[in-house]
């Protein structure tokens, strides 16, 4: 079940949202996306490098699928916003050492940590996670149990707040496993059919969004099922 875990911090309204799917979830129950017929890369199934030939062409194909995911999610999200007259969200390229990092860097790090630590999902004996507010049976995917980082602290770590007189950030997460549940279409469909996630996507206050995907499931409920992919989506407004 999705849940909304709002937090308020100085200078920022922080909404923590999470979602996870299992293979038994009926795709037919989800409303179709507005941009499903116009956005390229909707159905990219992120595969590991080992799934491609060990050639230059194979490496290029691996990188292409990786690079297609974020633009596909952005296109789908903006199609949903356009249908309601909302302004499109933007994403900016991270300049690394040559300039300021973006929220995309924070999202990518959190996705990688989530797959490495696998703390999402149900609270179980011996599992290192912080239970979410309002649902103590589920781990909070927005609080890294190893570092204690939150969406707010991750945004601050890349210098987001230092460039703004006021700012807001929010985070959606998603873990899917099985070919039909790991695509950009699957992630955005799940979010749009969950009220708190949909509200973050359609929130007119936000001006930018970054969606990063990591191979593997942050939720151990996926077991050994492949492919498995974890998404972290960060929204921002810097004023």
From TrEMBL:
Residues 1-24 form the signal peptide. Keywords: Signal. InterPro entries: CAP_sf (IPR035940). It comes from the Bacteria. This is Uncharacterized conserved protein YkwD, contains CAP (CSP/antigen 5/PR1) domain. The lineage of its organism: Bacteria, Bacillati, Actinomycetota, Actinomycetes, Streptosporangiales.
């Amino acid at each position: 079940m999705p849940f909304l875990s709002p937090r308020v911090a100085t200078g920022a309204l922080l909404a923590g949202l999470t979602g996870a799917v299992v293979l038994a979830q009926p795709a037919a129950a989800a409303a179709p996306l507005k941009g499903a017929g116009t956005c390229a890369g909707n159905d990219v199934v992120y595969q590991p490098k080992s799934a491609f030939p060990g050639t230059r062409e194979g490496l290029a194909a691996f990188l292409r699928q990786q690079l297609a995911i974020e633009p596909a999610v952005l296109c789908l999200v903006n199609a949903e916003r356009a249908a309601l007259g909302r302004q499109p969200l933007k994403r900016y390229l991270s300049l690394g050492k040559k300039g300021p990092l973006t929220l995309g860097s924070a999202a990518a790090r959190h996705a990688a940590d989530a797959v490495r630590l696998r703390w999402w999902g149900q609270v179980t004996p011996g599992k290192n996670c912080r239970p979410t507010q309002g649902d103590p049976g589920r781990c909070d995917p927005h609080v890294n149990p190893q570092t204690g980082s939150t969406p707010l602290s991750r945004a601050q770590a890349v210098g987001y707040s230092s460039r703004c007189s006021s700012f807001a950030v929010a985070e959606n997460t998603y873990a899917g496993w099985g070919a039909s549940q790991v695509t950009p279409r699957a992630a955005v469909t799940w979010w749009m059919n969950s009220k708190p996630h949909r509200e973050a996507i359609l929130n007119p206050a936000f001006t930018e969004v970054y969606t990063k995907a990591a191979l593997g499931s942050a939720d151990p409920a996926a077991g050994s099922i492949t492919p498995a992919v974890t998404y972290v989506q960060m929204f921002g407004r810097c004023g």
